[in-house]
Amino acid sequence: MLASNPNAPEPNQRQRCYACFRPVDRCFCDRIPAVENKTHVVILQHFRERFHPFNTARILRLALQNSQMVVEGVEGLGNWFATQHVTANAALLYPGKDSQLLETLSESERPQQLVVLDGTWHHTKTLFRDIPKLQSLRKVRLAPAEPSRYGIRREPHVLFLSTLEATVAALRCLEPDTKGFDQLVAAFHFMVESQLAHPKSEGTVRRKLRPRAPLNIPKSLRQSLRDVVVFYAETAPHSGEPAEASETERAPAYWVAERLVTGERLERAIASTTPMTQSFLNHIDLTVLDFDNAISLDEFREQWNAFLRPTDTVAYYYSNCTRLMKFMGETNHPVVYLKAIQLHRGRKNGEIDTLLSDLEIVPTEARGKGRPGRRLSYSIALVQYLATCSLFATD
Fold this sequence. Notes:
Distance between the termini: 59 Å
Shape: elongated
Order of helices and strands: EHEHEEEHHEHHEEEHHEHEHH
Strand order of the largest sheet: 2-1-5-3-6-4
Largest sheet: 6 strands, parallel
Number of helices: 11
Structural class: alpha/beta
Number of strands: 11
């Protein structure tokens, strides 16, 4: 009797390519280009990601010729990183308030070495928290113009990217003349689309939920948010009964706006002819000090019109902003009233915080002071959700 081969695959076990880690009949290694990147890329991978069949760092390592990947647990990565040489001009690709936007760096400010963390968002936060040397690095970040195309695994935020997407986007900023990035992204899309076409073949895969698209998403919010400015404004307090208030008294008193991709923000207090009462300040969660440097309405109008670019679309949720926009004069910019977008068939949209809760959307931190900053963050979260809907929903 012939002895059985202990290394032979079980009848129901599919053979894999151990480069891309896909089943042999779906190997796409021949699509992965060799990219001669100039910036040295160091990928620190949490050990639990090592054998995930859809880990994008593996594709990245195969493509980038000037890169290395280290796979360990938190302690092992910490020990390895503590003994390794890091260039003086190294940077960690990691979002945060003190992270520099890559697109704004001059050529002399660009890092020569880029450290990338690979794992779930929980894993990467743990790595950053528990490896002191990482915290000492300069941090850089991206400002994605559109949601991730990684439709296989769920991201914690609509504009969070896979490791491959984030690293390629960073390298495009750092070395725009390097060739091969388009082919690398195309290989990534091929992997995603192939898997989504055969969702039952991998029992452990969790497909990203594809929300039903609202019926009337404006074209300006579909897929790209590069030219979208979101704003919120507070109305000046009344001197008496609302019916007696003049149009001047009902002018904007506080305005906050943000351009989504770059994060550029305009936040101004606007001088009012009506005193700021304590009850009004409590209502909008601001203090009298926030109005110490208030500027005139004419000055703000000039600043607002200078802030907007010719290609911008202006978006807002709150109905009072429709009236307050009139104080800014005539505009040629497209305007999107978010509350009018039909998110539920046969039902009007109510308060935005309730709406976000129903949609299971968690806004990021406030984008300014007090109630204006919070309401701006709610509006931005909704815009990002709508962009995701239009990207992933089927017709």
